[in-house]
Amino acid sequence: MRVTYYGQACTLIEAGGIGILTDPWLTEGAYQGTWFHTHVLAEAGVTPATVPRDIDYLFLSHEHEDHTDLTTLRTLRPGVPVLIGRFGTPKFRRFLESIGTLDVREVPFGEPVSLGNDVTATILGTAEYTNDSAILVEADGCRLFNETDCKLSYADLERLGKQGIDIGFYMFSGANWYPMMYDYPPEVQSERVRRRRQSLVRGFVQRVKLTRPRFAVPAAGPCTVLDPELLWLNTEERGIFVDPELAVAALREVGLPSEPLYMAASDVWDSRSGFEPHAPAAFRGPRQEYIREASARLAPAIRARQAAEPPAGADLAQRLADYFNTHVAAQTSAVRKRIATRLALDVSGPRGGAWTVDFNAPGPEYVREGLLPDWTYKIEVQDHLLYPYLTGKEPFFEHLLLSLRFRAVRRPDEYNEPLYHFLYEPDPEKLHNWYAAH
Amino acid sequence: MPRINLSQDEIPLETPLRVEHEGHAIVVIRTAGGVSAFEDRCPHADWPLSEGEIRDGVLQCAGHGWEFDAATGRCINAPAYCLTTVTVTVEGGQVWLEWE
After folding, report:
1. Is the bond into A412 cis (omega within 30 degrees of 0)?
2. Averaged over A37-50, what is the pLDDT?
3. pLDDT of A44-55, one tens digit each?
4. Closest CA to B30 of B46, B50, B3, B2
5. Most distant CA pair in chain B, distance
6. What tens digit of pLDDT does each residue of A208-230 get?
7. For A285-342, where are the alpha helices, taking DSSP H only?
8. Fold designation for A316-437
9. How far apart are CA A103 and CA A84, in angstroms?
10. Mutate which of A129, A130, A150, A154 to disrupt the B interface (most B C-beta within 10 Å)?
11. Which helix H or strand E contains A168, and what residues bound it?
12. H helix or E strand, kind and range, residue A254
């Protein structure tokens, strides 16, 4: 088995004459221009155009742009079979089918699928509400596990450990907006960042400990933010995007039998010959220095991209009311009660305004003009960034939050998971069933 | 209703202890504030909480970092989630655990 690493959760697995590409994100500037790879992939000669077009299978773990990149997908040969987990809703499948060139195949979780030539793949499903998955590939007497961003149950991970893994690719970093985008006093913010980073690295170590691979690679999770205005997000004091070399060091410190392996984009691991470094030397240099230089190089392109962002439509207010009234009204009263929030949307820009989505209202109207004084969660965002999520042009609302181009406040300062689930996928049946069971 | 006892000295300070009895797994916690016990399962992804850490009265799950008040079992990140509580009685250096 030969594995080429392309950053984040993207691996090209070649075994038994079969090529499987996982979670390809081979462009830069995901989520409205914010997310860049740990190192700019093009500097290693990796672009959508350089990926072999004759891969046999594609595995996509979930819909996040750093795992499912439309630009990359459109460069693959038409009709390439795409393996995805059989999720509780068809949203991800339909999204992929809408691209028009992919042969999407849903696979039941936990059931090995033969890919031919004694190569099998098993997709494992998340323990969370989200549509996320991980993959185990077995070939040539070798087992590769790619956790992607997926939070598997303890039982699944324990089972993997008992089966034996040769190489595992693990999530090791934060991959969202908490606590950075919340308005906390600096000392509170830095303490939360510290705790979160600590728990992320610790969780990585624990999952490696449980799954016991021969080689453990910190892979999915972090982004690098190269927008000069947001460079603070890359710092240890203010951001949750962990440096992969810190994760390797943490693993080494614990002294597990698993060998920590830092793979940079374009590096290769071969089950017979071992690790082959291919990445440019700069990918193994001091991290903050690399980020500063990359940001300086790319700043003009980032500014040009932002300047070209389309404005919000004149119907933003109506779109916003329609979006939230429809989705809130569709929920069962039990789910609305679980969410029980007053979501304030403070939208700046020419089409901006202020609205509150009151999940406690009797309905059928849930959106009120203005910020209700007792709002419990507030999002401040620019109109043109919000607008495509209201029209459906951008089908996944969470991507707005992953763009890190908003601010938020919560009162009380508590994680409202039902609200997050609603924003993630407001499917009434899925939400109802989830909260009937949880 | 299952009921077991252990000596208070067997429970390390600020380190979760897993106790198994008739197919039930319990995590027992001793802090300066007292002894508490819960079902040894994180409601997020079923990790044993006994593999977690206690710091400043907070029990943190080892798997994905969810945090719980070590005394009450209330989830700090997502207050809607609570750990399943085990009744604890301390008598003369003996800790009795009782659950349904």
Report:
1. yes
2. 96
3. 999 999 988 889
4. B50
5. 37
6. 999 999 999 999 999 999 999 99
7. 287-307, 316-329, 333-339
8. Nonspecific Lipid-transfer Protein; Chain A (3.30.1050)
9. 11
10. A154
11. strand A165-170
12. helix A244-254
Chain A: closest CA distance from residue B87 (Å): 22
Q: How far is B66 from chain A (nearest CA, A)?
A: 9
Set out the domains of chain B in order of their start, with CATH numbers.
3-98 (2.102.10.10)
Cβ-proximal residues to A294 (8 Å cutoff; 6+ apart), any chain: A36, A39, A40, A224, A226
The secondary structure of residue B75, as a DSSP letter, is: B
Contact yes or no for A334/A315 (Cβ under 8 A): no
For A408-427, how does the pLDDT look when each residue is reduced to its tens digit (9 = 90+)? 999 999 899 999 999 999 99
Length of chain B measured in residues: 100
User: Which pLDDT band, with edges at 50, 70 and 90, does A72 fall under?
Assistant: very high
Q: Which of A151, A414, A417 sits opposite B64 (nearest CB)?
A: A151
The predicted model scores a pTM of 0.96
Residue A374 to residue A352: CA distance in whole angstroms: 21
Supply angle C-alpha A19, A266, A244, rounded to 5: 115
Look up the ipTM and state it. 0.89
In CATH terms, the fold of domain A2-297 is: Metallo-beta-lactamase; Chain A (3.60.15)
Contact residues on chain B for A150, CB-CB shorter than 8 A: none
Spatial CB neighbours of B86, under 8 Å, sequence gap ≥ 6: B26, B37, B38, B39, B97, B98, B99
pLDDT of residue A411: 95
